[in-house]
Design brief:
The complex is a heterodimer of chains A (553) and B (246). Chain A has 553 residues and is an alpha+beta fold. Chain A has eleven helices and 25 strands. Chain B has a twelve-stranded antiparallel β-sheet with strand order 2-9-10-11-12-13-3-4-5-6-7-8. The chains are: A alpha+beta (553), B alpha+beta (246).
Chain lengths: 553, 246
């Protein structure tokens, strides 16, 4: 008697665990197989489903299959209204719950009360992690998801950046934008502010004009329980170059920054009017120059805006900057002043093999070229140049990574197709790898002793579609060897950061067209393994029941 | 024997499955794109002839884009609309997900942004081939290449490519940027209808080094169609409403 009561009490928790497993398995295994292996993946799914169905004895099949499908369908149903405004979400949820329970009552021989708890559990799972983001659990734990809705459809993805956290030495904090929601009487307080500060009146009034379309610049750092948001101070922002946040829709929109009541704000304006752009286009012999000029102007204006607000004077990389055509600064105590065609410093790295030189080089980018410049103690000189063409332009879209762990960095270039270059000696570029797919992209790299883990966005193996998914690879014997795949297709602007841990790298990313940012960290629990073990366990339970049933019959 | 071959097939399949997830280096895309282009001594004349053939055009429709790639992103402006020479335009424009409209009838020129129409400077020359003709006469390219033929939409086209100066009126304040980083040249690709010898598409590619941003690569493509067809070019109703409503 007591035993059956205990069993009854445990049924609901068991059903909840099973439902969550079913949802996770569908997202992590079935979806992944189909996306990566296309038709073959569908065959895997069919095979796994058949194995699942026939593992259970005939009597159990009806309830097991119907309940499993119910859970998966409920999860997709709930996800379908996750992006709605709160009021609609609540209304839709209530309607959905009623319909799902009525359906469940007739189709599944599980008590309605229990189904109710199951749906609530699936909903809570999705409040914690949206269904579309569950796929990241294949390799990462989700450290932070920020829904930072912006008022402007012009911003397709929010820019993200990381800066040293002033309160926690050695660790970083996240800087990003959040759509500004005007509060009551904000307009009046801005008017008062403008009249009180005649010197800044014009910038305050333009903030007023763009109130509905402006963004707050915010910083995010770990609090006691979770990551918390605060308005970024100008002291924090001073460490960033304008290009970290200002290049939304560059060069077609210009970002304006201003400080209102100690909060830094951004708003966007068109760099050229629609009519001006059309007039540029209709003169093909000058359009390249007009757009180039638009780019130069926009960048100069934004740089000035950023400098005025944050006091950030120079874009410096390891103490080096480019001024008036010279690479200048101090490196390891020695002054550097070297004429270069570069316009931006990509980084300071060890580009030569250790057998040739163990010194550092500056890598600078000019108009469609990348130059490697020797740094002190060596005499500053250009030791190698890489040229792009109009068909394969070299933008700043490059990643540096130590492929083999010998302290020599390779240049991972996102041309179409993406390529890996390494210097075998001064002046001699060696092309180590070329992608066979044109949509393949290198994003960032995690430092590892035996060779860095390359974080990429790559298309699936057996599908001609260009859709990219997150992946991790290491370079071995001329191949990229797969370490992990996460079937999330919308990650852009990926950065390797150290926000919660100095030793283990985390991945900071913006989600395209979702106005959401995410931070992914190393896993505590191996979710993928657990979910796969769950599938095996379910099969075993089914077979055991089948075996028992046959013996008793 | 049979069993032996079965085992071997199994081994091969397993290795394929195991290594199948790795990405070997594959240079086919690179070599493919090293376009098989050949110098065409009469190319310049053919391109010029295509531009001159456009002189009898009175109306045309256009689908165009300006793409700028810098850093990790490619940003695009899309155009779609109709032109009636010499001075009528009705054009849809998409800049980063937001829609704009341009309407011009002679010296009456308006643009729509954020749902409001505002007067603008009328565009003077609406025939893009004029600017190309000028370029070819003033600064003829040294070599014109012929690319493999291609079907563009439904037209069989011959394709010519050349590098030439990207000169012209500079916008805004000169001296703002160092002269060095402004492109001196651009790569022009011209699609000429193989049957009628008329101009179908122009693509302009170039790059610029922007301080603090690095290289921005520029690609402007415009496709012409619906030549001398009939298009409704009356003013958009929202513009008329905005003007007429007190």
């Amino acid at each position: 008697m007591a035993e059956s009561k205990l069993l009854r009490l445990l049924t609901t928790p068991f059903l909840i665990v099973y439902a969550l497993w079913a949802v996770l398995f569908y997202q992590l295994a079935f979806t992944a197989w189909t996306l990566e292996y296309s038709v073959l993946g569908v065959l895997f799914v069919l095979a796994a489903s058949l194995a699942f169905i026939y593992a259970f004895p005939r009597g159990d099949r009806k309830v097991v299959i119907r309940f499993t499908l119910f859970c998966v369908m409920a999860s997709v149903g709930i996800a379908s209204f996750a992006s709605e405004p709160l009021a609609w979400r609540v209304i839709d949820f209530i309607v959905f719950l009623a319909l799902a329970l009525i359906l469940g009552r007739f189709l599944i021989s599980v008590k309605t009360r229990r189904l109710f708890f199951v749906i609530v559990a699936i909903t809570l799972l999705q409040v914690w992690v949206p269904l579309g983001d569950l796929s990241t659990l294949a390799y990462f734990d989700i450290r932070y998801i920020g829904h930072l809705a912006s008022p402007d459809s012009q911003v397709s993805s929010l820019p993200v950046a990381a800066i040293p956290d002033p309160t926690r030495p050695g660790l970083q904090e996240i800087v990003t934008l959040r759509g500004h929601t005007p509060v009551k009487s904000e307009a009046q307080s801005l008017i008062n502010l403008a009249n009180a500060n005649p010197a800044h009146a014009s910038s305050i009034l333009s903030a007023l004009k763009n109130l509905q379309r402006s963004y707050d610049v915010i910083a995010i750092r770990p609090g006691r329980l979770r990551l918390v948001t605060h308005y970024a101070t100008t002291g924090e922002l001073k460490q960033l170059p304008f290009s970290s946040l200002g290049l939304v829709n560059f060069p077609f929109t210009t970002a304006h920054f201003l400080t209102v009541a100690n909060h830094t704000r951004m708003y966007l304006s068109l760099s050229a009017s629609p009519g001006a752009l059309l007039s540029m286009l209709l003169s093909p012999s000058t359009v390249a120059t007009s757009i180039a000029d638009l780019g130069l102007q926009t960048a100069a204006t934004e740089q000035q805006n950023w400098r005025n607000v944050t006091g950030h004077a120079l874009d410096q990389t390891s103490g080096l900057s480019i001024q008036n055509g010279y690479l200048t600064g101090v490196f390891h105590g020695a002054p550097v002043h070297f004429r270069t065609s570069g316009v931006a410093v990509l980084g300071v790295h060890r580009m030569l093999p250790p057998s040739v030189s163990s010194g550092f080089q500056a890598v600078v980018e000019g108009n469609n070229t990348i130059q490697v410049v020797a740094l002190p103690p060596a005499r500053p000189r250009v030791i190698a140049t890489l040229h792009g063409s109009y068909l394969h332009p070299l933008t700043m879209d490059v990643v540096f990574a130590d492929l083999t762990g010998n302290h020599q960095d390779a240049l991972l270039v996102n041309t179409v197709p993406a390529q890996i270059f390494q210097l075998s000696s001064a002046g001699a570029w060696q092309r180590l790898w070329v992608s066979g797919r044109d949509s393949f992209r290198f994003e960032t790299a995690f430092k590892r002793p035996g060779g860095d883990l390359l974080i990429v966005n790559s298309p699936s193996l057996m599908n001609a579609a260009k859709t990219r998914y997150l992946g991790g690879y290491v370079y071995r014997n001329g191949q990229l060897v797969r370490v992990f795949r996460v079937y999330h297709g919308n990650f852009v602007d990926l950065h390797t950061v150290h926000v919660t841990s100095t030793s283990q790298p985390e991945l900071l990313t913006s989600v395209y067209s979702h106005q959401e940012i995410m931070m992914l960290g190393p896993q505590v629990l191996p979710w993928m393994l657990l979910v796969e073990a769950g599938f095996g366990l379910t099969l075993v339970v089914g077979i055991v029941r089948r075996f028992k049933g046959r013996r008793s019959a | 024997m049979k069993r032996h071959s079965l085992i071997w097939t199994g081994v091969v399949l397993c290795t394929a499955l195991l290594t199948g997830c790795n990405l070997p280096s594959n240079t086919t895309l690179l070599t493919q794109q090293a376009v098989q282009r050949q110098p065409d001594p009469t190319g310049a004349q053919k391109v010029m002839a295509a531009f001159q053939q456009m002189n009898d055009v009175s109306t045309y429709q256009m689908k165009a884009s300006i793409q700028v790639a810098s850093g990790r992103f490619v940003r695009t402006v899309n155009f779609y609309g109709a032109v009636q020479l010499p001075n009528l335009v009705s054009m849809d424009e998409t800049i980063g997900g937001a829609n704009y409209l341009v309407y011009q009838d002679g010296s009456f020129a308006y643009q729509n942004s954020n749902g409001k129409w505002q007067p603008m400077q009328p565009i003077t020359d609406l025939a893009p081939w004029h600017s190309m003709e000028n370029l070819l006469t003033k600064d003829p390219p040294k070599v014109v290449y012929k690319l493999p033929d291609q079907t563009l939409v439904s037209w069989y086209c011959k394709i010519y490519q050349f590098k030439a100066a990207a000169t012209g009126a500079m916008l805004g304040a000169p001296g703002l940027a160092s002269a060095r980083s402004v492109p001196h040249q651009a790569l022009y690709t011209i699609w000429v209808d193989a049957r009628s010898g008329k101009l179908r598409q122009i693509e302009v590619q170039s790059t610029v080094g922007v301080p603090g941003v690095g290289t921005a690569s520029i690609d402007a493509t415009q496709l012409y169609f619906g030549r001398n067809g009939t298009v409704d070019m009356t003013a958009p109703s929202s513009l008329a409403t905005q003007i007429e409503t007190p």
